[in-house]
């Protein structure tokens, strides 16, 4: 299988790349700075470019079987376009090249629910810190809306608090998952689920939460 990963130099994106290569997939990634990618493999192709550049996105998507989006916020945490506009570019190119399967990482906190906010507070975030990341949450909300309206075979994945622990392969997934303050999930397990969702129809066109 040939897949494209957007956000491949981020922590979750790197896990996706690593696991995809381990299972024999061919992986391409559009990255702004190739030096940030510390994975080297004969089946990994890096293309320097920006997800906000529609032409670059279009070029890299041609000929792929599926797309995984693990885009993160800008360095200043004030972006209100990177995830939404970047994903819009991705969807446009997918339609152009008849690529149907799209897996997108979002965030449980994005849900806007009291539980989502309480999860942030449970790991020590105060009101000011939460307010500071609201542009990011708003961007993710726009991103999700664009994905749901795409007409593609999508899965939106909302992890709880992300950790760097090892993959367990054991986690809970659901559209209405009960989440308690302090719950977390390893990026490696999020990557595992996203890759499985590329070939499974179980959660097709659903928005799901993933946690332990």
From TrEMBL:
GO terms for molecular function: biliverdin reductase [NAD(P)H] activity; riboflavin reductase (NADPH) activity. Residues 7-198 form the NAD(P)-binding domain. Transmembrane segments: none annotated. InterPro entries: NAD(P)-bd_dom, NAD(P)-bd_dom_sf, Polyketide_Oxido-like. It comes from the Bacteria. It holds the Pfam family NAD_binding_10. This is Epimerase. It comes from Candidatus Beckwithbacteria bacterium CG_4_9_14_0_2_um_filter_47_11. The lineage of its organism: Bacteria, Candidatus Beckwithiibacteriota.
């Amino acid at each position: 299988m040939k897949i494209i990963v957007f956000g491949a130099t981020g922590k979750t994106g790197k896990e996706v790349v690593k696991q995809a290569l381990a299972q024999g997939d061919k992986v391409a990634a559009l990255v702004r700075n190739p030096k940030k990618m510390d994975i080297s493999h004969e089946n990994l192709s890096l293309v320097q470019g920006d997800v906000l550049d529609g032409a670059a996105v279009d070029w890299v998507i041609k000929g792929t079987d599926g797309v995984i989006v693990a885009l993160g916020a800008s360095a200043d945490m004030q972006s209100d376009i990177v995830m939404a506009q970047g994903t819009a570019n991705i969807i446009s190119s997918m339609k152009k090249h008849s690529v149907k399967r799209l897996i997108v990482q979002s965030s449980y906190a994005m849900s806007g629910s009291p539980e989502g906010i309480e999860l942030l507070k449970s790991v020590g975030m105060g009101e000011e810190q939460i307010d500071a990341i609201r542009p990011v949450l708003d961007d993710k909300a726009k991103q999700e809306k664009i994905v749901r309206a795409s007409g593609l075979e999508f899965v939106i994945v909302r992890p709880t608090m992300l950790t760097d622990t090892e993959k367990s392969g054991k986690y809970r997934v659901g559209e209405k998952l009960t989440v308690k303050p302090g719950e977390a999930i390893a990026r490696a397990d999020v990557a595992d689920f996203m890759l499985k969702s590329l070939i499974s129809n179980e959660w097709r066109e659903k928005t799901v939460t993933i946690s332990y």
